[in-house]
Amino acid sequence: MRLPLRFVRREKMKAYQVTGNEYVSLPTIHEENGSIEGISCLYMQLKGMLEMKGKNGLISPSLFIDGQQISLNPVWKREHYWIPTFQSNALGILFRCTYLAPVGERGFVIHLEVENNTADAHLISIGVQGSWDETLHTVNESIPLETGKQVKLSGWNHMFVYQQVPGMPMISLAPIVSDDQPFSEIDQGAQWWQDGFQYDIYKKETLLSGQRGQLDVYWGLGYEEVAAAASAKEMLRQGYSALLDRTIQWLSMRETYCDDEHIRTLLNTNRFFAFFFASGRTIDTEELCMMTSRSPRYYVSAAYWDRDSLLWAFPAIVQADHLYTRELLVSIFRRQAKNFGIHSRYIDGTVLEPGFELDELCAPVIALERYMNLSQDRTVLKEPDIASALWSILAKIRSRRHPAIALYSTFLQPTDDMRNYPYLTYDNVLVWKVMKLLGNWLDCPECLDEAAQIQSAIESHCIFTHQGKEIYAWSIDLDGHRDVYDEPPGSLQLLPFYGFCSMNDHTWMNTMSLIRNDGYELSFAGHTIAEIGCKHAPHPWILSICNSLLSGNKDAALKHLQHTSMDNGVACESVHEDTGECTTGAAFATCAGFLAFALTEMIG
User: Fold this and answer.
1) What is the Cα 371 distance to its own chain's centre?
2) How many angstroms from the chain centroid is the CA of residue 560?
3) I need a surface site. Which of 46, 260, 302, 546 has the fewest CB within 10 A?
4) Cα(48)–Cα(289) distance, rounded to whole angstroms?
5) Which residue, 125, 112, 109, is CA-closest to 39?
6) pTM
């Protein structure tokens, strides 16, 4: 489950850069020195994520001037909102480092450049060094793999290969550099073999005034030694410039422009973060799948929620790439359909945490509609796994209906916390929408009739008079009990967004006025970030900013975004109401998707 704030492990916030592609994630590039703390990949047979880490850096860029190692003081920027690069200037020597995870490749490249801007010649060494200290298996929690770490010299890349082989191959990482570069040398150090997992790869040359040098280190990832080394060599053969140009072209085609530079940066950075950290290909089966986040910094990383993936991240991903999204949808319905609506699952579709959530059962249908609206592709409904799953979803929804009244119950609410009363207004609005969609797709008049009955039941039972005004209840039990509440992960703010009512609906307007008023303890009215929180994490949620963007509260939401740093520009769960700094849920990839989507909808 998502832990309430008082139970969440609060880490000291460091500033990280991130990048990645379908196969590999670089979630922890330390801004202070450019060190990559670890790299991670998805692994279907292990139901989650593997991460290779170094205690002092798995990969750290290095610069030596006349034999003296120079402390780097990086100045960062993100090329095309996704390619981290920094430069450092010391003693008149300019040093640049770029982290490129080329789209479609099973690995990444560290590109180093150096320029002598002094009047004298200097002996310069540039390279990367580090150590592999542990491999972690992560699904929410990280567990060290205690056995099977190997390092060996390999003829496949004329260097070394790291392999996790606990009886059989599991993951392998291999570097390679061009073997025809002048002045290039590889040195693992005098003790590298006996120490086992330390290395130092560098290029040394004397640069005259005005001269430049560079070194590209390609890192391939694979199931075992040959796959990893071959992946690195394939990138080497293409060359850094070609890989960079291809990736820039891919990113450029998916960037959204707006005049406000801050909003433009937030939108595109979070879109790419959602694309590559809320979805990806597994290293062992090459299947596309979705998850909360591929970053181990998110407190429930590498697991799957229907709601998070399909209501939040999916809209941004489908805006970016229709073909990718179609494959993603088919894969999700094939793997996850059996347990649609169950609290959380592994990436292979089996149950992680039991407990029924009505909004999650509705999410796959709503995602299908969004895909078809944007792609104009209705053939996806004929996919066997999707066609059969729609009837299964309908049957599961019907099993939650009250015997006499067209309202549907849930066990957990959208924060994954236990509900007070079984019939949530927001959840039933989703069921109303799903019934209309299934009625059309499945040629089911009974579904269309049920949708009308749900609307009537919500209006009859989920609206009540509070403080002299009609409002929507958060939840009810049909025995006269109800509560006044809201949750950003499934907010009453979104009723117009889903088409249930208009933004001029007086009941909805009264409800919004109530939950945004300073009399409502979780409104944070009067604070710098005056957005809504909830008991799960009692600070303003970034999802609430998204909800505001989609529900006519655009100006306030944009103002809030100007005052929050979130997680170094990437969406997190909640922020402090006065400082705007991340309080819970760093590196929240599915939320990043909803933020990018909401900003895109606002821009139009």
Assistant:
1) 19
2) 21
3) 260
4) 10
5) 109
6) 0.95
